[in-house]
Amino acid sequence: MAESIFTRIINKQIPARIAYEDGSYVAIHDINPQAPTHLLIIPKREIATLNDLTPGDGELVGGMFLLAKRLMADLGHTDYRTVFNCGEAAGQSVFHIHLHVLAGRPMAWPPG
Ligand code: 5GP
Questions:
Q1: Ligand 1 proximal residues by C-beta, below 6 Å
Q2: How far is the CA of 33 from the centre of ligand 1 (A)?
Q3: H or E element at residue 66
Q4: Which residues contact 13 (CB under 8 A, 6 or more apart)?
Q5: Is 58 in a helix, a strand, or coil?
Q6: Which pLDDT value is given to residue 1?
Q7: Contact between 11 and 61 (Cβ < 8 Å)
């Protein structure tokens, strides 16, 4: 399978505004932000969708939320929205799991 655009970002083959990086994750600013702050938290290991997770991935996925909490605190946000889109009909366009973290404006519900 061709590598995802996020793997290309992780491998520094294409540029991105990197907010955070460690051995397991990279967090980047979304190229088309839907809020004043819009981060994508991406595990470096390529997993296509939430449907491809296995029980052993629990810690990896939990770590995405812990990182969201930490990055939002660093940016001074107490209120924010986290979103995983799973599958095309749900709005997923990059098939390498990522957690959207949006902040800096009031959020409507339902999300549409
Ligand atoms: P999805 O639609 O899969 O839930 O979210 C993919 C997100 O990745 C979109 O919000 C889109 O704007 C963002 N995105 C796609 N390509 C790039 C890119 O090359 N750089 C960055 N920073 N974001 C991207």
A1: 5, 16, 28, 30-32, 40, 85, 91-94
A2: 9
A3: helix 58-74
A4: none
A5: helix
A6: 65
A7: no
Tokens of 33: 């932000």
CB neighbour class for 64 (10 Å; exposed up to 12, middle 13-18, buried from 19): buried
pLDDT given at position 2? 85
* pTM across the whole model: 0.98
- The rounded radius of gyration (Å) of the Cα atoms in the chain is 14
pLDDT < 50 stretches in the chain: none
Could you give the CA distance from residue 23 to residue 32 in angstroms, rounded to a whole number? 26
Residue 29 pairs in a beta bridge with 39
> What are the Cα distances from residue 89, in Å, to 17, 36, 52, 82?
28, 25, 16, 18
Of 12, 17, 40, the one to substitute when testing ligand 1's pocket (max ligand atoms within 8 A of C-beta) is 40
Mind telling me the catalytic residues?
98
Q: Residue 9 and residue 12: Cα distance in Å, rounded?
A: 5
CB 34 within 8 A of CB 107: no
